[in-house]
Amino acid sequence: MKSLYNRIISWFLGFAEKQHGYLAAGLLAVMAVLSLGSMVGNSATFDEVAHLSAGYAYDHFGDYRLNPEHPPLLKNLAALPLQFMHLSFPTQDPAWTTAANGQWSVGSSFLYHMGNNADEMLFWGRLPILLLALGFGVFLYGYSRRRWGTAVGLVILFFYTLSPNFIAHSTLVTTDVGASIFAFLAIAAFARYAEKPDALGFWLMTMALTGAQLVKFSLVMLYPVLGIMALVLVWTGNRPKSFWPRFKMFVGGLALASAISLVGVWLYYAVQVWHMPLEVQDRLIDGTLGGPVLRDIAHFLLSINHLTFMEPVAQYLLGLTLVFGRVAGGNVTYLNGEVMTNGSHLYFPELLVLKTQIAFLIMALIAGGFWVWRAYVRGAFVQRAGIHVRNHVMEWTLAFFGLFYFVVSVAGPLNLGIRHIMPVYLPMFVIVALGVVSFLRWTRKHQPFLVTAGFGLLLAWYGASTVLVYPSYLSYFNEFIGGAANADKYYTDSSVDWGQDLKRLKSYVVQHPQINHIAIDYFGGGEPAYYFCQPRYDGAGHLIKTAAGYDCSHSMYEAWHSQNGEYTGQYIAVSETYLENDRYYSVRDKTPSYAYLRARQPIAKIGGSIYIYKLY
Fold this sequence. Notes:
- By secondary structure, the protein is mostly helical.
- Among the domains are: 75 residues, no CATH class; 53 residues; 136 residues, no CATH class; 129 residues, no CATH class.
- The protein is 62% helix and 5% strand.
- It contains 26 helices and 9 strands.
- A hairpin with a 3-residue loop joins strand 8 and strand 9.
């Protein structure tokens, strides 16, 4: 039996080795199909309105007055196809001309009030992000296969392409998947330099660090992580043989690459603010930085902003200040049926467990247990650790970065969704894949059939749990809580409801003609009037390009909010975020609440994010 099993496994491994390209292409094709199908059905999520309009302004006007709290690279990329669409932009809107960072108003006008086709804009804006994710998948597999072998490469790619979180965020004009990708690239470039410290490795590391800083401000954490790993390599290394040459090579090389990367950031920002009037940048700094500490920073930025070649520096530091000020300020958080204002250290650990497939969690436990057992059996861990780090720089740096990023996120009070810890997933995929494949190879000498069959079932469960929730990937939760249907008991905001299901709500209402009138309280980046009402024109036949440019008098749609009191009509649809966060705001503002809805069972949950109630 064991001999037969080994022959079968040998045949399968040989087949995988010969046909690995087709297997990898198949996985990427599955990701593409699931992502595209989901993407087309999604309405605009909350942040996409700001990111897409800001990216268009950067590309089209060379003006960075919108959304300075996020770096520009992915927004530039997303908005590139829009430059060929002959769009109208609200350049006369006071939110553009006089406001300090009027990103939400400008974004809403750009998509929904100027006569542009919002769905086409979203499709073409999202497509570059999806292509980036798919292209990275090609790189990820090729890199993993060369470094760790075909089996590990395929398992890593399997985890990546069938991750509901990566599918969800690969279809949005946001920075979260890009942050995961560029963090991995920076770590891979650092490992390349550590293993072969030549000129090519140095410049690859420099470019990767530059790209990471242009994608997401939180990736500034790469600098301390890589710095610590460089010191570890100095301590554990054996080439050059002398300490100071090693220090110069690893620490000095990283320091120089980091410095040059910041010069690259400066050059890139210079292009973004090239046509931005100085007075607009002053207004942006002065209008977005409030409070005693931030006012001191504002005064400093205003002072350097008028110095030659310092406008890009001021813009970059403004964004960095805004994002870390946002993190320090926290947010209203809904967790396990309670609303809090200072966040919770349990938020991200619990969220990671609940939004990751159970099959992966089981494999992670097995892989982790195997690593610990093997280290124990081999003994002399401390003595061997230095050699292991030196010989496995990529693995140790990935693990350290993932842990560091996760701990910093948990320590902060900003609890807004799984997207904020997306960069920890790729390190987990790599470490778990390495552990699983190593464990399977070890078990070929012990209980091979049962173990391999068990892992086959786990992989099948992993894939099925993603395919079966199509197209609702943003609201994915695993079986521990019964899926997205029970998410309202645990979470709100971008982990469940970011506004992605407005178009699906419209389709549901159209398919149920008994609903001839419905009140809607919608959270997200969409515009209900755009989908439910008719455009309005002035006496000269020109489109009214404001929020008043819709005629809803003959529509089934009625705008509603909890502050209006208890709804007396028959049907009402409420976004899950408003439904649950209302527990806090209604008490704080002493206004009517949605308690009467929370006491009822909805007749439908659209994509897990919008709840429809029939009141009589």
